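Researcher: We're teaching a course module on how sequence relates to structure. For the next exercise, students receive a sequence and then see the predicted structure as tokens, so they can try to spot secondary structure elements on their own. Here is the exercise chain.
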Amino acid sequence: MVSDLHDAAANNDVAAVRRLLAAGAPVDGRNLAGATSLLVATHANSIAAAEALIAAGADVNAKDSIQDSPYLYAGARGRLEILKLALAHGADLKSVNRFGGTALIPAAERGHVETVRLLTEAGVAVDHINRLGWTALLEAIILSDGGPAHQQIVRLLLDAGANVNLADHDGVTPLAHARQRGYRAIAQILTAAGAR
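Model: And here is the predicted structure for the students to work with:
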């Protein structure tokens, strides 16, 4: 029954999700990877199924074997509608992924502008440092192409109070990283915000 619920979640089959739950399928039952049906729905961006599962009490913070939860994965992958549902149903803003990063850090790295906006407005710590020694601001520079989406993310992070001079573990500042990569627009944004 658990695998059927996972299949229904992956296929966004809301009728099947509801039928299986009514028949006693555990809402947070796990597959071999430790994923709940809500995490499977999040992977597939099955919004309606995710909504049905959350309405039935699915845990938005339940982590799989690689430390992803529906909330963290939705943030990292820009699954905006599921992220909104997770935030409205008890997402743990302090939870971290296997790299020690909050949902905000990979969202910033991957250029998910609206996700970054939503997470900063929700109150995710903008200066959280992951195991690599990087903040969301550093990842938005180091692991980006420096283009318009990442420029907007840098602005959003600074507007949310990110420390413009918080360096990585090697003492390299966001401005130094931007200059090394030739990201002039980002360097200008940082400089205007007091970067050294």
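Model: If you want an answer key for the exercise: The chain has a mean pLDDT of 97. The radius of gyration is 18 Å.
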